[in-house]
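# nightly structure sweep
# worker-07 picked up a monomer target from the shared queue
# config: single-sequence mode, recycle default, output format = structure tokens
# input follows
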Amino acid sequence: MLVAALALWEGAIAAFHVQQFLLPKPSAIARDLYDNWSTLSSAGWYTFKEALGGFVAGSLIGILFAAFVARFRAVGAALMPFAIAANAVPIIAFAPILNAWFWIGKESKMAVAAILCFFPVLINMVRGLTSVPPASIELMRSYAASELTVFRRVRLPNSLPYLFSALKVASVLAMIGAIVGEYFGGSQQQLGIIIKNSASLFMFETAWAAIVVACLLGIGFYLAVSLAEHVFMSWHPSSRRVTG
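# output follows
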């Protein structure tokens, strides 16, 4: 399917005489990717480390805040509107502000990625922690279980499918956040800077080659989270296949 799509792409550009600034040929992108692999792979690794740092920070903060919201419902209900309002602000508006706060090093890009990862993790984790079947809670209460025990034995396991769903989304958003943050300055050896500069200099094959590297890293990141889900969720009923 992928080969057919690429062949159709290549043929359509030749047949309709599409200019390279609109859409380069896949063969030209592949050639540029091969010629500049060293530079693009180095920039990709740099950007990936920013995305990974933001993913870890944003996800951890989201999990901790979700646990607080689930435990103290009244306080959580008061704070959630502010979190939702912050989520409504376009990330491109945060990027230059965070560059001013954290300068233009890795930290500002990690902060952009962390903000993007925080909200899906928070929302899904809260849902997972609070959607426990009442019968399970009543059973734990009948054993005189403490709130900590209920959280550890019931709420946390129940939240794992929701958490991993959010983490898979966040893994892709982290790459987007890191690249968007790079558009506003930083090291020249970053994918965002390469895409921006290449497009400005009409080197569209290089820009698309950098986009391909970003896509590959995003897909790899997503698959790594999916693998972690398979490993850590093998015991969960949601991971068992129904056989007939």
